[in-house]
Amino acid sequence: MTSKLVSCQQCGRHLSVRDHCSRRLAALIGVQADAEVPGELPERRPHYL
């Protein structure tokens, strides 16, 4: 599974968006990337399609 770091256009929070799609929501899954330690983001890696 891969993920991509993005910033939410509405709230500005950093999200880690996974390549898994929720069938129930018909959307990609995203979680707050710095939820445990605010401001500490995971290392950015190349995103492959």
How does this structure look, described?
This protein is mostly beta strands and 49 residues long. It has a domain at 3-32. 0% of the residues lie in helices and 41% in strands. The protein has no helices and three strands. Strands 1-2-3 form a three-stranded antiparallel beta sheet, with no helix packed on it. The termini are close together. The mean pLDDT is 82.
List the helices and strands and how they pair.
Elements (H helix, E strand, L loop, with lengths): L2 E5 L6 E9 L4 E6 L17
Antiparallel strand pairs: 1-2, 2-3
How is this structure best summarized?
With 49 residues, the protein is mainly beta.
**Alpha plus pi helix count:** 0
Largest sheet descriptor: 3 strands, antiparallel
Order of helices and strands: EEE
> Biggest sheet, strands in spatial order?
1-2-3
* Rg measurement, Å: 11 Å
Strand content: 35-45%
Beta-strand segment tally: 3
Poorly predicted runs of 5 or more residues:
none
What is the mean predicted local confidence, pLDDT?
82
Overall 3D shape: globular
Q: What structural class do you assign from the helix and strand content?
A: mainly beta
